[in-house]
Write a structure and sequence with these properties.
Blueprint (H helix, E strand, L loop, with lengths): L1 H5 L4 H12 L6 H17 L5 H16 L3 E4 L2 E4 L5 H27 L13 H17 L5 H18 L3 H16 L6 H13 L6 H4 L4
Antiparallel strand pairs: 1-2
Helix pairs in contact: 2-6, 4-5, 5-8, 6-7, 6-8, 8-9
């Protein structure tokens, strides 16, 4: 599985992939731009964010960014070159389409009890952090790492998750969104349904670690 799905056949390759999943760069920079922008709007305007306002804000921010920025660097003041208008508009169209996908997935997750009324996903980093935990176990089972390396990776994934999220449920919703943005293409098929089943089990079974181990 590691060979066919991840191209991993050695300790070095496993280590590189594990490091990438644990990095704080975000699961996907475009996803994190959109989700981060909504997070800022919610903070500044009291919580609820209209989808139309979110879309318009994304367009405004991207246009301002692509006009060229003046940056202070160790070498002095540098101005970045403006991006061609056609490229900017294509980028805006892509981000606005992504915003639509995110809101539709969140609406479905509210209907299925994954998110509460008014709740939304703040970051999709859970998608990488959840897979980082899996990668640690896979690395151990294939002997591409030893037990201390695997344990350290799981602890780091947990630490990073606790910085981003408040609860198991919040982490789970973010993981589901990332998984579906990556693979599901709004079919709401097994990529989505399987995780809904797992979420329900982990929030209801008396022996679930979610009900017995504090998230933070």
């Amino acid at each position: 599985m590691l060979r066919t799905s991840w191209g991993i056949t050695s300790h070095q390759q496993w280590q590189a992939q594990q490091h990438a999943l644990l990095s704080t760069d975000g699961a996907n920079p475009v996803w994190e731009f959109a989700l981060g922008l909504r997070r800022v709007i919610a903070r500044d305007f009291g919580g609820y964010v209209e989808t139309a306002f979110w879309r318009d804000s994304a367009a405004r921010v991207l246009r301002q960014r692509d006009e060229g920025e003046t940056l202070l660097t160790p070498d002095g003041i540098t101005k970045t070159e403006p991006v061609p208008a056609a490229e900017t508009e294509a980028r805006i169209k892509g981000v606005q389409h992504l915003i639509g996908r995110i809101t539709r997935y969140e609406a479905r997750m509210r209907a299925d009890g994954i998110l509460g009324d008014g709740q939304y996903v703040t970051s999709a980093d859970a998608w990488d952090l959840g897979r980082a935990s899996c990668m640690a176990r896979w690395g151990l089972s294939t002997r591409y790492c030893d037990l201390p390396e695997a344990e350290a990776a799981v602890v780091e994934a947990g630490y990073n998750a606790a910085r981003c999220y408040e609860s198991w449920e919040e982490f789970s919703a973010a993981f589901i969104l990332g998984r579906c943005l990556q693979f599901d293409n709004e079919k709401f098929g097994s990529w989505y349904q399987d995780m809904v089943t797992v979420h329900r089990i982990l929030t209801s079974e008396p022996g679930s670690p979610w009900l017995n181990i504090p998230f933070r």
